[in-house]
Amino acid sequence: RATSDRRLSTTLYGLPKVMHRLTVIVAVTILVGCAARRVPVDVEAQSVGTAELELLPSPEPERPADVSPTSLPPEAAPETVSQALPTYPSSAINDGVACKAELLYHIETDGSATLVRLTWDLPPPSDHLDAFETAINDAVATWEFAPGYQLRLVERADGTSSYEKRLIPKARRAMIRFRVEGGKGVVE
After folding, report:
1. DSSP 17-67
2. Cα-flanking dihedrals φ and ψ of residue 182, to 5°?
3. Could you tell me if 71 and 91 are in contact, meaning their C-beta atoms sit under 8 angstroms apart?
4. Beta carbons within 10 angstroms of residue 103's beta carbon
């Protein structure tokens, strides 16, 4: 009994095609979802039009003894181990030079720091510029950090899984201000 109106066209069981397609989509979605969650379907218990599903709890993933979500947070930012301030250039103290620099530095996965960019918010006079840049570069080269990490669940082909501690590099910014106070150089 097909008509020209698509909404009224029917399928084999007298259901509108839209309902038939919806039923098929729901059934496929349920089966795919069950397969993805590894939910067993009891074939013996099936009756016409229904299926009894037994939902089993997901097994806990295996974790190595030294790295588990209970002993480590899932993510950690780098922590400062050593971050000495630059040495104030003595010639700049005598001349009373003050300046302010913004640093962009990169914390590597081994905990070292690398200066990426140095910009001056308040630049020193050109005759002292090299001395300040050298002092900043020398200081950053000595900085040490405990690198940041992320825990990631790794599933293996044999069905086992474990947590992997992945070290992550991180970019950071710092402001360093040089000023002379009472004849002494102050770095902050």
Report:
1. HHHHHHHHHHHHHHHHHHHHTT--B-GGG-BTTB--B-PPPPPPPP--TT-
2. 60, 35
3. no
4. 20
CB atoms within 10 A of CB 67: 14
Residue with tokens 């970019």: 171
pLDDT digits (tens, 9 = 90+) for 59-116: 454 444 445 455 667 788 899 999 999 999 999 999 999 999 999 999 999 999 999 9
Contact indicator for 156, 62 with CB cutoff of 8 Å: no
DSSP secondary structure string, the chain? ---S-GGG-B-TTS-BHHHHHHHHHHHHHHHHHHHHTT--B-GGG-BTTB--B-PPPPPPPP--TT--TTTS-SEE--EEEE-PPPPPPHHHHHTT--EEEEEEEEE-TTSBEEEEEEEEEEPPPHHHHHHHHHHHHHHHHH-EEEPEEEEEEEE-TTS-EEEEEEEE-EEEEEEEEEEEETTEEEE-
Inter-residue contact 144 to 109 (CB < 8 Å): no
The model carries a pTM of: 0.58
First vs last C-alpha separation in the chain: 86
